[in-house]
Amino acid sequence: MSIFKNKICIVTGGAQGIGHSLCVELARHGAYVVMADINFKQLEKETQSLLEKGLKVMAVELDVTDESAFKSIIQEKAGEYGRLDYLFNVAGTAVVGETQDLTIDHWTKVFDVNLNGVAYGTFHAYQLMAKQGSGHIINLASVEGVLPFPSSVAYVGTKHAVFGITESLWVEAADMGIDLTVVCPGFIRTPMLTDSEAVNTSMDVWRGSFLVVLFEKLAAATADTCAKMILKGVAKKKAIVFTPKIGWLFWLNYRIWPTGYMRMLRFFHRMDRKRIKKLKGTANPS
Fold this sequence. Notes:
By secondary structure, the chain is of the alpha/beta class. Helices cover about 55% and strands about 15% of the residues.
């Protein structure tokens, strides 16, 4: 896609997962890619690998929950290159478990990264792009940003917020020369699906739940496939991108019959509670 050639891009969460795959795809299409991540050791390793292939990338350490640091990177890179064409807010985290088992610190952690981290980047990039009269902000929500989902309530809340922020700003930005895209991935095969924090459960048990198995079978994809679909949507300046596209059908079903959809989730979640109780009983026989 020649549209990305020589464009200046910042991608958060660039060390792994969807963020890393986006960096690779953008660089392959000739973009200058600023790869940002809090895990700087891993980021440097990935950046060096891409530099050895002749791709135009650079690594910057960034904690997206640090508003002043995020602002500085946006301003510094725009000043260095003369503009900022794309900001991809990809960095995210999750805590899995029943809300009754979590602490407020678990919720705060998820909200700080997934919502505040996106809000800081969006706000400061938007200010800069409004002055230059061009730019495109891409925010990663989730299929859980348009649907309810149990056992990841804080995550779902942040992704709903990201969806609302991006769509509302899309309307406001219409006459500013700025485009916005919100991305709603399904269950993408990244470290988040295996390495997220799990409270009073495990990621293996969580991934064995009826709902997760259903969504993984119907709406799963690799990070590389997801990145390619995202960039196709961004190139077309789409307001909403579902990856894979079947996520749109889930959303449509929910919009047509929200109560029925939620009752279905409740039914499956009750089944999962019984399954987990049985597993715990087997592991710890009385």
